[in-house]
Amino acid sequence: MIQGYTFGKQGIARMELTLEPTPLYFQIQQKLRSRILNGELKPRDSLPSEAQLCAEFSVSRITVGKALDALVRDGMIHRKRGVGSFVSDRTQPSKAVRLTGSLEEMLAPVEKSTRQLLGTEIVSPPDVVAERFQSDSDVICFESLHASAGDVFSHSRMYFPADIGVQIQQAVRESVVPINAAEILLNVRVEKAEQTIAPILASSEIARCLNVEKGTPILEVVRTYLISDSRPISVVVAVYNPKKYQYKIDLYPRPH
Q1: Which terminus of the chain is more solvent-facing, meaning fewer CB atoms within 10 Å of its CB: N or C?
Q2: Of 228, 139, 156, 235, whose CA–CA distance to 192 is shortest?
């Protein structure tokens, strides 16, 4: 991650990126994302130019371009041709997915949300997880709370096979989204995601996490991430307070 500042011949402050397995473009993406989420860059603010970012991080224009492309896919920024890149002006925690769209849209985190990692532990898989992994071997669980403007709207438990989880846990502790960490550090690509959404009643534990009454109707999402050969790499079980979160799906006719 970012280690500090150095100063060039003209006194320009530059950030040093660590020479670690995480790609440089991803480190830049996470740094810019952090600036947006903490309010350093506000909605409609313009980002530094590509040339300025190249100088700040001492990387090529191609690397900066990849970082900005990733932020566009995440919905964090948008580009105006010939003008520059700007912070997106959306504040409601919501998700829009085209059923015929790209997988990146489904995997992108909710815009302007923050994630608090509550804990990491090796556990026996719950039935729903064992069923999707087709194994009852131990798994590693990343438990998190998700908030927008400090208001919690979701609680999630993300499960990985134990041998995979231990390889990504340090990156997850450094605020990298778990599935992104797996793709980057293990050099794999999620090819497909299978998801179910169902209404449930909040248990005592979940009610405390979401600040609702026990028995309140909430949404439960179970999502399985699959890599090549339809092998599952992760299962996430997340619950949402429907008063604070909307899941929007745009339906389009099949192209003729």
Answers
A1: C
A2: 228
